[in-house]
Amino acid sequence: MAGIQETPISSAAGGAVRIDLGALGANWRLLVETAAPATCAAVVKADAYGIGMAPVASTLAAAGCTTFIVASLNEAVALRGVLGAAATILVLNGLLPGTAKDTQAHGIVPVINDLAQLQEWQNLAQGSDSVLPTVLHADTGMNRLGLTPEDVGVVSNEPERMTGLDLKLVMSHLACADDPDNPKNNAQLLEFLRQKAALMPASASMAASSGIFLGPGFHFEIVRPGLALYGGNPTPNAPNPMAEVVQIKGKIVQVRDVDSPQTVGYGAAFPVTKPSILATVAVGYADGILRALGDKKDGKVWGSIGGVSVPVVGRISMDLLTVDVTEVATDAAHPGAWVDLIGGDAMSLEDAAAAAATIPYEILTSMGARYHRQYVGGAD
Ligand SMILES: *Cc1c(COP(=O)(O)O)cnc(C)c1O
To answer: Which of 52, 131, 195, 283 is the most exposed, fewest CB within 10 Å of its CB?
Structure first.
């Protein structure tokens, strides 16, 4: 971790995302320790939650991660290019019709979600005279993806359906893991134990980020964190044990003096009530600063300039938002100066998600393409 170099933020960008790969590594180690003796896989779907699949996966591989999980085959193929042949890559969406050959060609393991996928994978194994690695997803109550309990019964009663396939893992997914008191957690656990017992012996996996913190009963052999790696709080009712990975900043484009009875932005939604100084910042909802974060009158959406809070006023536009910089020293709020918007001295990822009536996942995966992405703290 020697010689951390901060590349200068591109002057061409109106917004920047600072990604701390050192914090990512620290989060990885915390999750590995918490889950031990279970091992940790890393969920890097959706471009590693918008953070950048290649730098994230490379950092985690260097930290010892050997199993990576994505949603779709195109993500898996891209990841294979980053990680090389040794990494195990699972595709949660399984085998979409017509993708079995490509899945095999790239050495990807499909997470089988229904009996038709299982049949297609087995046909390929028998047709190519090879034993193919296989993961079965058992749906234990989410009713979203996975073999139904009836499907599991079929596989259990007709073991020849697994001939030619090497069952590496049986997994399921919790619907309410972020709510430790929810009785659905134990109900799903019991159902998973029942389904697992009906199938041939294999490693098992049930816990994503929040599930890890439900305790060892949910760990089995492999856990599958995503959000917690990226600094999101896996224990929403308690302080965040994870280190901050993502900071979003925007650059001031213009500064102006205003006074009553002027208004700010679209819809004249914010009436100015006193002499104020406003700064217009070059990021907006096209960058993933969700429009729902605008037009809040309760001061719950705020950026920061040098540690001084600057409330967001008026609506969020596509490319711009406005902050009240009246309390900031005039030489700190000028065109070209940076405003922390999420993370750092500004509101946290969780604060922003709450203010937008959404979840940290959506804030992260909404980050737009035109940010300058600055990766710091990685291995040399
Ligand atoms: C996205 C996903 C994960 C990771 O979830 P986090 O809450 O981000 O840790 C794990 N397992 C499955 C099946 C998923 O879809």
So the answer is: 131
Q: Whose CA is nearest to atom 13 of ligand 1?
A: 173
Give catalytic status of residue 168 as yes or no. Answer: no
Q: Which residues line ligand 1 (CB under 6 A)?
A: 43, 45, 92, 173, 208-209, 224-228
Q: Are 223 and 254 within one domain?
A: no
DSSP 236: T
- Cα 133 vs. chain centroid, distance in angstroms? 26
Single-letter residue type at 101: K
Q: Give the pLDDT of residue 6.
A: 58
Note whether residue 3 is domain-resident: no
- For residue 1, the model assigns a pLDDT of 36
Last residue within a domain, chosen from 180, 203, 230: 230
Question: What is the count of structural domains for the chain?
Answer: 2
Exposed e or buried b per residue across 6-28, where buried means at least 16 C-beta atoms within 10 angstroms of its C-beta: eeebeeebbbbbbbbbbbbbbbb
In the three-class reduction of DSSP (H, G, I as helix; E, B as strand; rest coil), residue 171 is classed as: strand
The pLDDT tens digits for 226-275 are 999 999 999 999 999 999 999 999 999 999 999 999 999 999 999 999 99
Measured from the CA of 92, which atom of ligand 1 is nearest? 13
